[in-house]
Amino acid sequence: MKNKIIFATGNANKMREIREILGEEYFEIKSMKEAGIDCDIVEDGKTFEENSLIKAKAVAQFAKDAIVLADDSGLEVDALNKEPGVYSARYMGEDTSYDIKNANIIERLEGVAKEDRSARFVCAISAVFPDGHETCVRGEIEGYIGYEPMGENGFGYDPIFYLWDKDVSTASISPEEKNAISHRGKALRMIKEEIFKHENIGC
Ligand code: IMP
């Protein structure tokens, strides 16, 4: 019988990515909505790891025999003391457009040289298993904040997040290219390994 997984997200893109990376050979993967779970979660952790575990534990209360996964991600800019960090979605207000948020970050870095504009996307994913076992992984991708937005793909801070080796933003590369190197792609592949280990799959 397939292991059941519930991913604590309502985001269709994330569901597609998790299905692609975990594969449906071993797993029956559902979103919270597909699993009929609806709960308010207060993400008041200080780190990406804490927030992802808060979400996974909250959903696990309703998940019976399923493994629950939850992620938390964001952008850290070194010259801004790692802001916006866990407040990435809430930076300048949840409803403020990313055009405005991105312009603001570039403005705050005025006069900062390229080598000091380092930044990273971080993604923590927690898993809570039906036996109560908990684990958390972190994926990162390093880059820098460009001098102007570039590209139409992606979402959020992608237009201002540039790759060191390509000098283009992650909004300028294809979704496939981004998934292969992204913080979320890395974290999903790591959590897959943790799940295989815990469930003795492939032994
Ligand atoms: P979430 O935890 O995945 O909902 O992400 C929180 C916020 O981090 C998003 O609303 C974006 O602002 C930012 N973020 C996370 N991952 C990415 C990414 O791959 N590209 C651009 N922005 C991202």
Compact overview of the structure:
This protein is of the alpha/beta class. Helices cover 29% and strands 24% of the residues. Residues 71-75, 88-89, 121, 154-158, 182 line the site of inosinic acid.
Your description of this structure?
The structure is a single chain. By secondary structure, the protein is α/β, with parallel strands linked by helices. Helices cover 29% and strands 24% of the residues. The protein contains five helices and seven strands. It has helices at 12-22, 48-60, 98-108, 175-181, 183-198; strands at 3-7, 27-31, 67-77, 83-84, 118-128, 134-145, 161-162. Strands 1, 2, 3, 4, 5, 6 and 7 form a seven-stranded mixed sheet that branches. Strand 1 (3-7), helix 1 and strand 2 form a beta-alpha-beta unit. Helix 1 (12-22) crosses helix 5. The model has no long low-confidence stretch (mean pLDDT 95). The structure holds inosinic acid. Inosinic acid is lined by residues 71-75, 88-89, 121, 154-158, 182.
Summarize the topology:
Layout: E1 3-7, H1 12-22, E2 27-31, H2 48-60, E3 67-77, E4 83-84, H3 98-108, E5 118-128, E6 134-145, E7 161-162, H4 175-181, H5 183-198
Parallel strand pairs: 1-2, 1-3
Antiparallel strand pairs: 3-4, 3-5, 5-6, 6-7
Spans of at least 5 consecutive residues with low confidence: none
Number of helices: 5
Summarize the helix and strand pattern as letters: EHEHEEHEEEHH
Shape: globular
Give the beta-strand count. 7
Terminal residue distance? 16 Å
The description of the largest β-sheet is:
7 strands, mixed
**Heteromolecules bound:** inosinic acid
Which structural class fits the helix and strand makeup? alpha/beta
Work out the strand percent: 15-25%
